[in-house]
Amino acid sequence: MNILVFDQAGQLAGALARRVIEAILARPDLVLGLPTGRTPQLLYAELGTLTCETRTDWSAVRTFNLDEFVGLDGRDPESYRQYMERQLFAGVRVTPHHVGFLDGKASDLEEECDRYERAIASAGGIDLMILGIGVNGHIGFNEPAPGLQARTHRVALCPETRAANAALFDGDLSRVPTEGLSMGMATILRSRTIVLLATGEEKAAAMTAMLEGPITTAVPASFLQLHPDVTLMLDRGARTSPR
Ligand code: F6R
Predict the structure, then answer these.
(1) Active site annotation includes 114
(2) What is the pTM of this model?
(3) Ligand 1 atom closest to Cα of residue 140
(4) What is the distance in A from the centroid of ligand 1 to the CA of 59?
(5) Is 138 a catalytic residue?
(6) What is the pLDDT of residues 186-213, one digit of tens each?
(7) pLDDT tens, residue by residue, 12-56
(8) Fewer CB atoms inside 10 Å of the end CB: C or N, the chain?
(9) Distance of alpha carbon 33 from the chain centroid
């Protein structure tokens, strides 16, 4: 794995934003995999600014987000779909029908997961997958468990994952859904290139487990060790030795 450590989270966001813009300029119909959460917010803001400055055209870019809450659809203000609208899509003017998203309110969630797998495959697969990492080593909503799911699937969310998402629900943990839909580990690992972002000391233990520990379902991110083209972009906090 390539490991890039930045002094400031803002520098990291700027470097990755430039990489994304260059990838779109080289390939206007780039297929991007995208995370939500706190970590990519600076990246998304930077992408909005750079897109304006460079007049980059996103109209042919296709996107697939990693996950969504069960029980919410794309119109719910707390949904990850709406988060993406606020943080990125409105700013870069992605073509609405090029946005791939799981529908957490679909009547048949199993079929919804199958539909998502088919949609990713028919887009030709994901060229550049950007990931965050949970404090427990999860990626997407692939939580630590005795076994991991390969394909897009329905998953029960860990207490720490629900707590980390409470801010989206006015800090009210009781309103955070207990389940999610997520791309599976094999879906993620099929991406041609993967960049994982981590900032802050609270991610240091997960980074050490992922980089230095064995490949284990107890740390889902450790499976990235199997991929031939992964770059970790970290700030100094995320690369400190965990206490
Ligand atoms: C969300 C996702 C999650 C987050 C992770 C880190 O779409 O894929 O795996 O990347 O929970 O979240 P933050 O960035 O809020 O610490």
Answers:
(1) no
(2) 0.97
(3) 8
(4) 26
(5) yes
(6) 999 999 999 999 999 999 999 999 999 9
(7) 999 999 999 999 999 999 999 999 999 999 999 999 999 999 999
(8) C
(9) 7
- Per-residue pLDDT band at 223 (split at 50, 70, 90): very high
136 catalytically annotated:
yes
Give Cα separations from 10 to 53, 64, 76, 202 (angstroms): 17, 24, 30, 17
Q: Contact 233/6 with Cβ under 8 angstroms?
A: yes
- Write the burial class of residue 208 (CB in 10 Å: 0-12 exposed, 13-18 middle, 19+ buried): middle
Per-residue HEC secondary structure of the chain comes to CEEEEECCHHHHHHHHHHHHHHHHHHCCCCEEEECCCCCCHHHHHHHHHHHHHHCCCCCCCEEEECEEECCCCCCCCCCHHHHHHHHHHHHHCCCHHHEECCCCCCCCHHHHHHHHHHHHHHCCCCCEEEECCCCCCCECCECCCCCCCCCCEEEECCHHHHHHCHHHHCCCHHHCCCEEEECCHHHHHCCCEEEEEECCHHHHHHHHHHHHCCCCCCCHHHHHHHCCCEEEEEECHHHCCCC
- By the 8 A CB rule, do 97 and 58 touch? no
Q: Rounded CA gap, 226 and 223, in Å?
A: 6
